[in-house]
Amino acid sequence: MHPLLRTRYPVHVLLVATCVALLALLAPAVASAHALLEGTSPGTGETVQDAPARVTLTFSEHVGLELGGIKVYGPDGKRVDRGGSTSKDATISSRVRADAPGTYAVSWRVISADGHPIRGAFLFSVQRESDGTAIDMARAASKGSRTLDIAFGIARGAYLLGLLAAAGGVLFGAWIAPGTRLRWIGWALLLTIVSSVAGFLLDAAIAGGYGLSETLDVDVLRAQAGSVYGRAGLIRIALAVALAVAVALRSRGRAAVHVAGGVAVALAAAQSLSGHAVAAEHEWIRLPLDMLHAVAAAAWIGGLVQLAAWRSGDPPTHAVVRRYSAVALASVVVLVLTGIYAAWDEIGFSWDGLLDTTYGRLVLAKSALLVATMPLANRNRTRHVPALAGGDDDATPAAEAWPRLRRYVRGELVLLVLIIAATAWLVQSVPARNQVAPPFRDGTVKLASGGTMNFTLDPARAGRNKVHLYVFDKQGAQDDAITQLKLDAVLASPAIGPLEFTGRSTGPGHYSFDDVRLPYAGTWRFTAHIEHKFDEDVARFRAEVAAGKDGAKPSSDENFGASG
């Protein structure tokens, strides 16, 4: 019987299933990733005659205000928001005192359902437009720090490296080579804990627009602990500390080893408690698979670290290496299958999403690096592992097998470290589905007169589009009494529009707009003005426009818009 199928193995299987189930219950119940700003009141770029009592922003999903909110600057550059920001469902708002005529600037920061902070700014005017310091103040308030972003990426990569080495190393000691001395575990755990704390503070600074020293304020720490990423970070830190204690107690017997293995599984799975998995449409499938992906990565990479650090003069036994080889093969199969599902969930069947987005290109890079490890792993499995027992067909001496195997193991590790770096970048990238639209958008809206209007927007990308509008009266017949049909389009962030377009009739109730140029990606609001001889009807609809083929999309720094 294979050693992994002996009586102790079901205990580990039970621990894995239990830990994954508990972590799945701890994960927050949320929906789609990376919220998009859909509209504002007052409207972006709008000039209103009466001073608004509130400023309201509407997003594509529920957003958090734990570390963000709305800041409104008057024409003189002073803050005019009052009483803090409030949220309800997918909207946030703040009371304002906007009595003075002139231009007001609004900056905002919120946290998406997946824990990623997003920010932006827009303008509106009361009675008249004006120059002043409000615009500069709002731009500065909504602007992110490139230094903090880079530091957070480094912390995220260091955390992944430490996590996989620590959790996987403990699993190696529990499943593969019981009783052996664990190597580099202390340093890996220290890296995990330090980088987790750094990530907790850096995320708070990015989400709230604070300086790093300001994140040590008690109120900021409390707010961060209530955010999606903050809660997940605290769980990870607690599990890393618990694993350090469990490792110290491993010598107390097999029960202590089992406990350490269970905590290692929980720590690896906790990687999925924030990020794209918790915000997937089918979270109940995606989250457990993402946790399984993390555990498999730990088992593979952590074992490689242990073998790479093994002393050259005291090679592991053939049985140990053979057991690890079986676990590594199973881990790779799990990684490939769960990775394919995750890629499909975030990209779909879209070549544009795969080739024209940062997320898709990172998935391709990870896949290429993973494929590059396969020849090294296969060489070890088919040649060097059998040679340790003297069973190599090429008659490689057993004394030479271990040095060769270890060289190949270190080569695998180099490639896997690059995969970890790509993963740290990937988890902070906007999913490809949020950047790439289907070939066209279509829908039906009701008219005040009782009729309906069908619309299509093709290709729903920044740049030149075609719009077709089909108008039907309340009896469902094509409206052949239209004298003119005009269309205008407005983008909330950055402030664009209204852009006006005049269509041409191509049949009863059918108007075509062949040159609708939409300069930026985002959620565009369209208004169709349907004119008859004696009356006018209005139809309003929204459509998500993806980045153009050149990748053009709004930039908060250049266009006073939104970013994540």
What does this 3D model show about the protein?
The chain is α+β, with helices and mostly antiparallel strands. The protein folds into three domains: 3-30 and 146-434, no CATH class; 37-142, Immunoglobulin-like (Sandwich); 441-546, Macroglobulin (MG2) domain (Immunoglobulin-like). 45% of the residues lie in helices and 23% in strands. The chain has 13 helices and 18 strands. The chain has helices at residues 8-26, 134-142, 146-176, 185-208, 218-225, 228-248, 254-269, 283-309, 318-347, 351-355, 358-388, 398-426, 556-559; strands at 37-41, 47-48, 54-59, 64-73, 81-88, 91-96, 102-111, 117-126, 441-446, 452-458, 463-472, 484-491, 496-502, 504-507, 510-518, 522-531, 536-545, 562-563. Strands 2, 4, 7, 8 and 18 form a five-stranded mixed β-sheet that branches. Helix 8 (283-309) packs antiparallel against helix 9 (318-347). The two termini are 53 Å apart. Residues 1-33 and 549-562 have low confidence and may be disordered.
Feature tags:
564 residues, alpha+beta, Immunoglobulin-like, 3 domains, five-stranded mixed β-sheet, five-stranded antiparallel β-sheet, 18 strands
Assign a percent range to the helix content: 40-55%
Residue runs with pLDDT of under 50 for 5 or more positions: 1-33, 549-562
Amino-to-carboxy terminus distance: 53 Å
Taking the sheet with the most strands, its summary is: 5 strands, mixed
Number of strands: 18
Query: How much of the residues is beta strand, in percent?
Result: 15-25%
| Gyration radius, rounded | 28 Å
Round the mean pLDDT to the nearest integer and report it: 81
Helix- and strand-based class?
alpha+beta
Overall spatial form: elongated
Total of helices? 13
In total, how many domains does the architecture comprise?
A: 3
